[in-house]
Amino acid sequence: MPGIIPIPTPIYRIVHYQNVEYILRNGIYTRGHANHDPNYVNIGNTQLIADRHDYPVKIEGCGNLGEYVPFYLGPHSPMLYNIKTGYGVARFPQSEIVYFISNAQRVAEEGLPFVFTNGHAKNSITTFYNNLDDLNAIDWGMVVEKQWSPIQGDRDRMRRKQAEFLIHTHVPISLIDGIVVYNQEKFNFVDTLMKQIGLTIPLSINTNLYY
Asked: Which backbone phi and psi does 180 adopt, to 5 degrees?
């Protein structure tokens, strides 16, 4: 596949800023887990989320998508664009969206069960993997693209763009390498929370990760 595999390999999860305090205190749980935030503010397509819950991971013994916390393997996800425009989902200003970033190698080193895909997980032609040696199956050139609309001769761009890294059940806050926000207001908001909780996760403003 075109593009260079970044090592360490960052993985990205976007959440509404109102979810940040719970995540900082508890980590990220799957939606069906008993410890999932009861006040979680959803930013995705609720029907798609429901449809994914029982969708099988196409590796024997790895269960269903609903058993995993999904991250993207690149920024500028189509979901973020839909959130910005309100296409098919609730519309939110990008300033209300926060990135939590980890990396695939740390997940593996900590022994957390994971799988990843070479495209949108709920697509019939997408392949699943559970060995980091297969990261070369990802189209890294496409994953990092900001423009992912289909073009003549390549109608599969958006599927490949949405390659996912999925972590089973729970992502402890200790696995988060960095938090990225859109502006100084949200930087101050997250920084205050971290000081109250006693965390020192690297925090930055980076509008380049947004549309």
From this structure: -125, 135
- pLDDT-derived band at 206 (thresholds 50, 70, 90) equals very high
Question: Which amino acid appears at position 83 of this protein?
Answer: I
Tokens of 44: 């995705």
Say if 5 falls within a structural domain: no
What range defines the domain where residue 137 resides?
10-209
The secondary element (H helix, E strand) that includes residue 180 is strand 178-181
Six-digit token string for 35: 């410890």
CB 166 within 8 A of CB 115: yes
Residue 138 lies in a domain: yes
Secondary structure (3-state) at 29: strand
Could you give the residue numbers annotated as active site? 52, 164
DSSP state of 198: T
Percent of the chain with pLDDT over 70: 99
Q: Is residue 25 situated within a structural domain?
A: yes
User: What pTM does this model have?
Assistant: 0.96
CA distances from 83 to 78, 107, 108, 187 (A): 9, 28, 31, 20
| Dist. CA 123–CA 78, nearest whole Å | 15
